Amino acid sequence: MRAPTEFLSETIEIDDETVQSFQEKGHAAVRGLCPPDAAAAWREVLVEAALRHSGETRPLEERDAYGKAFLQITNLWQREEAVRPFVLARRFAGVAARLLGVERVRLYHDQALIKEPGGGPTPWHQDQFYWPLETDKTITMWMPLVDATPEMGTMVFADGSHRDGFVEIGEQISEFSDAFFEGYVSGRRFPITKGRALSAGDATFHLGWTLHRAPGNATESPREAMTVIYYADGAAVSRPRNPFQEADRLAWLAGLEPGRPAAGPLNPVLFP
Ligand SMILES: O=C(O)CCC(=O)C(=O)O
């Protein structure tokens, strides 16, 4: 068996059809991005690291909709040395660049997202609601570290919704965002791509403006997933449009002023 780090510098081919479909729909699945043996090895490293840093102690029933949806542990690559090769992997960043149609991508941040057994649905939302970045070329890689069925809560997407850009609802991930966007996607008649069954190490990618949600975890097994967010190199910091973007500017962009290149010490170029 090859070491779980070995393949991370190797790029994979993404065919033109997948890129075109991604650009039309705002999301795509890439099977076998992390080979099965490596996915099992990385699961141990990533989930252990995530749980070590999760501050959540409340039972599910005491949390709001956001808290019920998943345990969210951000910035693992800075917290644990062992996680760095995974988050900084050229292989994953190369897919992000290819799907975005750009030459170079930078890291925004990573996060582990663990939907516990009985965990609630992930409300409809747009990721870029949180990001003070002056570009539409932003993308999230979402990779389950276990074989994940739709019943465990794999991603559901509103195809083509990225073309609407920022839908300013003034509220973050919540029951309100879920209800609002449920009405919005049906009103706009976006086709819905339902949650897929994914093997550990497969991944879905979606743009920062693509509306997405996930059902609750109706199984007895945790849905363990790792995400990495990238954006096109050359993007500038934008003027924060809400307090969450201001918090992100300080946390992920080293407090860089609006208009400056989004290129802080936490945003290395990961591809090429
Ligand atoms: O893991 C989830 O349930 C939600 C993930 C998500 O919304 C994202 O990665 O953008």
How do the helices and strands line up, and which of them pair or pack?
Elements: H1 16-25, E1 27-30, H2 36-53, H3 65-69, E2 71-74, H4 76-79, H5 84-87, H6 90-100, E3 105-115, E4 122-125, E5 138-144, E6 156-158, H7 175-187, E7 192-193, E8 203-207, E9 212-214, E10 223-232, H8 243-252, E11 269-271
Antiparallel strand pairs: 1-8, 2-3, 3-10, 3-11, 4-9, 5-8, 5-10, 6-7, 6-9
Bound molecules: 2-oxoglutaric acid.
Can you tell me about this structure?
The protein has 272 residues and is of the alpha+beta class. It has one domain: Sandwich (Jelly Rolls). Helix content is 28%, strand content 21%. It is built from 8 helices and 11 strands. The protein has helices at residues 16-25, 36-53, 65-69, 76-79, 84-87, 90-100, 175-187, 243-252, and strands at 27-30, 71-74, 105-115, 122-125, 138-144, 156-158, 192-193, 203-207, 212-214, 223-232, 269-271. Strands 1, 2, 3, 5, 8, 10 and 11 form a 7-stranded antiparallel beta sheet that branches. It has a 4-stranded antiparallel beta sheet with strand order 4-9-6-7. The model has no long low-confidence stretch (mean pLDDT 96). It binds 2-oxoglutaric acid.
Entry keywords:
single chain, 272 residues, alpha+beta, Jelly Rolls, four-stranded antiparallel β-sheet, 28% helix, binds 2-oxoglutaric acid
Briefly note the CATH topology name. Jelly Rolls
Q: Which small-molecule species are bound to the chains here?
A: 2-oxoglutaric acid
The outline comes out as: globular
Strand content: 15-25%
Q: Are there runs of 5+ residues with pLDDT below 50, and where? A: none
Specify the biggest β-sheet. 7 strands, antiparallel
Strands, count: 11
Identify the quaternary structure here. Answer: single chain
End-to-end C-alpha gap: 27 Å
